[in-house]
Amino acid sequence: MAEKSFRRLREALGLIQHGSFFNIRTAVVFLASAALLCGIYLVASAARGTSEREGDIRVALLADAHLIGPQYVCCTESNDVDNESIMKTVERLKAAQQQIEALSPPPAAVVFLGDVIHNGYYSHNFEWYLANRNAYTVGGEIFGNFSVPVRYLWGNHDYHTSCGSAADSYDRTGLSHRLFRHFLGPAALPYSAVQMGRYKLIFLNAMLGPSWDPTHPRCDTKYASLGAEQLVWLERQLGGGGGGGGSGSGGQQPTFVFMHHPLPAALRNEAPELKHPDVLSVLLAHADNIMAVFSGHYHRHSFATIPAAKTAAQGAAAAAAHARDVYFSPMAK
Ligand SMILES: [Zn+2]
To answer: What residue intervals traverse the membrane (predicted)?
Structure first.
C-alpha cells in the first residue's frame, strides 16, 4: 500500500530521484526529491512486516516549495532547473496536496521542512502584507485548504538577514513570526514538538542563533544555528536537563528530528556557555533515542549514517540525514 501510494506521490511531484530508508529496528521511510518541491512519505512502524501496530504513524513530508507572490521577478535563481521550477511551485504544491489527500490510509500530518515562502519580504511594516497580495497570502490560501494538518519548520528563505546591517534585515520575531502565524495559522510556530503515536517529532528552527543575528560577529547565513534558548529546549525535549535546571520533558522515547539545513551546515560551538553548545552536540548526546534527522534545503536526495560516531567531530563529517542503524537501498525503477 505504501509503495503504491509513494509511486502516485512521486508522479505528482515530477520527482527525479527516489529511494528508501530502512531502519532495522523500527522505521521504513520512502524518500523522493524534486528540483524545488520535495516529498517523502514516512511510515514509522514498530513492526518490520506489513501489519501495523498501535502507535505506528504515517506522515507526509514536503520541503522547499519556495512559494512566490506577484512581486517576484523571474528569474534570478542559482541554476536553470530552479528558475524553471520556481514558476511552477504553486501548481506542483497543489498537485502534491491532492496526492497526499488521496493516500490511504491517510497520513496523520504533513510536515513541511522549510523554505515555505521564497524571499517574501517587501516591507518592514506588517500592515503592508495585510494590504498587498504577496507570497504569504499565496501560502495561506494553499495550506489553508489542506485537509491533513500541516506542521511547519522554517528555512533560510523564510527569513531575511543581512549580516552587519540590522536596518537591512527583517526582524525575526517582530515580523517573520507574526507573518507565519497570521497567514499560516496557529501551528506555524517558530519551533515546536509533538507526540504522534509512540514517536516524538521535533521541528527545529535553524535561523534563530548567532549566524542569523545581523549584529553578531559570527553572523553568516550560510550556516544554521539554533540559539541558546532553543538548544536548552531541545535538550529538554530529548530527556536531558538542558543545563538550565528543570526536569526533562522528553523522556526516553523514539524521536524524529526535522531541521531545514542538513546537519553539516550547522554552526559549531554557537553557545559556549552550554554543556552541549550546538545542535550536533545535543543530538549526538541523545543519539540512542533519535531515529532519524530529516532535512530539506539541498533540493536533492542524500543520506548518511552515524552508527559509530562517538564524537561531535565524527558526526559533523556525516551528511544530510542522520540516524542510528539506518540503511539505504535504491528502489527498482
Ligand atoms: Zn533552504
So the answer is: 21-44
What would the pLDDT profile of 143-192 be if each residue is shown by its tens digit? 999 999 999 999 999 999 999 999 999 999 999 999 999 999 999 999 99
Domains in the chain: how many in total?
A: 1
* Distance from the alpha carbon of residue 53 to the mean position of ligand 1, in angstroms: 35
Cell 539554533 -> residue? 226
16 CA → ligand 1 middle, Å: 19
The segments of the chain whose pLDDT lies below 50 read 1-35, 242-249, 307-333
What span, in angstroms and rounded, lies between the C-alpha atoms of 316 and 142?
Answer: 36
Domain that holds residue 91: 2-329
pLDDT for 271-317, tens place per residue? 999 999 999 999 989 888 888 888 888 876 666 655 444 444 444 44
Q: Which residue has the cell 509511486?
A: 7
CA of 4 to the centre of ligand 1 (A): 29
The CATH number assigned to the domain holding 136 equals: 3.60.21.40
For the purposes of burial, counting CB atoms within 10 Å of the CB of 51, is it exposed (0-12), middle (13-18) or buried (19 or more)?
Answer: exposed
